[in-house]
Write a structure and sequence with these properties.
2 domains; 15 helices; Beta-Lactamase; single chain; Four Helix Bundle (Hemerythrin (Met), subunit A); 7 strands
Length: 410
């Protein structure tokens, strides 16, 4: 059994079931809620959500379980607010764990605020409540930096120490959380549902799903992944991880120690070797070459013939997060599990000489992302690796006519 899986405790499931039935048989609500909370205190987020799923499979009406969910979320928050001393303030693990607490609070607050929508009859009367929901949504959008720090920095360091499967499982959880958040964002900001009652129903269910799923995920990270990281990652590596966390940045709800560290940090880039590189078409010193590559109006990433990330440019127009932790990491581990088969298909066809180029394009907010992959070969045809080129072409697509004069203003 995976360390991220648990066996359902039949006795606990029976207690939860009995308490829900008591509630709907008209017994004292406050007394039942008190008993329910005591039962949940002995269960972690994973157990609670899995018991719920089991009860629904057995035929219990989801609405009966739904009626007690505010207690679930309260207990989740209390559970994740304990044992936060795994690492000292300013440490990457301390930051991640305290962000978990805030995100669970936002999840509970979103669910409770969504329930307030039932107190009014239609959209025109829900302005203040919808405004409060939008504020919470903004925090969930800001939370993306939390997941990016884990995926692009913590996970690669764990992989270097042979911890490969848990990061993959966590990344799949992240993608599921993103799907749930996207559903909420579309409901709140897209407002495509005109029927108020349907809107409230769907938002309430989506907010509960997000709150419960992320709580279960955080439980796995706090109790399994993070303690493992503390054991295998060295103090020197944690210093490097902290610097790379700082590069990605923090959320508006991150611990102040992390934010202050970025504000006070005086970064000094190491002086590059001034050696000259001679090409057939000219020569250039290393420092200038790096500046040239970083000036290109697109991102480039090179994956060597062994499928490991060897280099990425540091363009000011970067579309996707890149950190030093990915250098030497297999390209497969740099992608979510659902897209690894595509990555392997491209690289294998490049390596076997079947293809030389692959391209994709899609919208990302106000950007139009164009990604191209090129097989890099020696003059003798030997496969050397794959070059990824990513660019926002939204402005390019708008170009029409001719422009032959300089229009700068003095």
């Amino acid at each position: 059994m995976s360390p991220f899986e648990i066996k359902i405790d039949e006795e606990k499931k029976k207690l939860v079931k009995e308490l829900i039935k008591k509630l709907h048989q008209g017994e004292n609500i406050q007394e039942v809620r008190k008993q329910f909370k005591e039962v949940l205190r002995d269960m972690n987020a994973l157990e609670i959500t899995q018991v719920e799923q089991e009860l629904i499979k057995e035929g219990m009406d989801p609405r009966e379980i739904f009626s007690m969910c505010d207690i679930h979320l309260e207990v989740f928050k209390e559970n994740l607010s304990t044992n936060l001393d795994l690492a000292p303030p300013g440490h990457p693990i301390h930051t991640l764990m305290h962000e978990h607490v805030k995100l669970v609070e936002f999840g509970e607050k979103l669910f409770q605020t969504t329930k307030d929508l039932r107190k009014v009859k239609d959209f025109p009367f829900a302005g203040n409540i919808l405004g409060a929901i939008q504020d919470i949504v903004n925090h969930f959008k800001e939370a993306e930096k939390h997941y990016l720090r884990e995926e692009n920095i913590l996970f690669p360091y764990l992989e270097k120490h042979g911890i490969t499967q848990p990061p993959k499982i966590m990344w799949m959880d992240h993608d599921r959380i993103r799907e749930l958040k996207k559903e909420i964002f579309e409901l709140v900001e897209g407002r495509k549902i005109t029927d108020y009652s349907e809107f409230v129903d769907r938002l309430e269910k989506a907010s509960l799903a997000l709150a419960e799923y992320q709580s279960g995920h955080f439980e796995k990270e706090n109790k399994i992944l993070f303690p493992t990281a503390m054991k295998v990652i060295s103090e020197e590596e944690w210093k490097d991880i902290t610097k790379e966390f700082n590069d990605i940045g923090y959320c508006c709800f991150s611990p102040k120690e992390a934010v202050e560290a970025v504000e006070e940090e005086q970064t000094q880039k190491a002086t590059l070797d001034s050696g000259i590189i001679e090409f057939e078409t000219g020569k250039i010193d290393v420092k200038t070459l790096e500046a040239v590559l970083d000036t290109l109006p697109f991102d480039i990433t090179f994956v060597d013939k062994n499928d490991r990330v060897a280099y990425y440019s540091n363009s000011s127009e970067r579309l996707f997060v890149r950190t030093k932790a990915i250098i030497g990491r297999t390209v497969q581990n740099c992608h979510p599990n659902k897209s690894i088969h595509i990555v392997n298909k491209i690289i294998n066809d490049f390596r076997e000489g079947k293809k030389d180029k692959a391209e994709f394009w899609f919208r990302l907010g106000d950007k139009y992302v164009y990604i191209r992959y090129y097989a890099v070969r020696s003059r003798e045809g030997e496969y050397l690796g794959t070059l990824e080129v990513s660019q926002d072409i939204a402005q390019i697509k708008q170009i029409e006519g001719d422009k032959k004069l300089l229009d700068w203003e003095d």
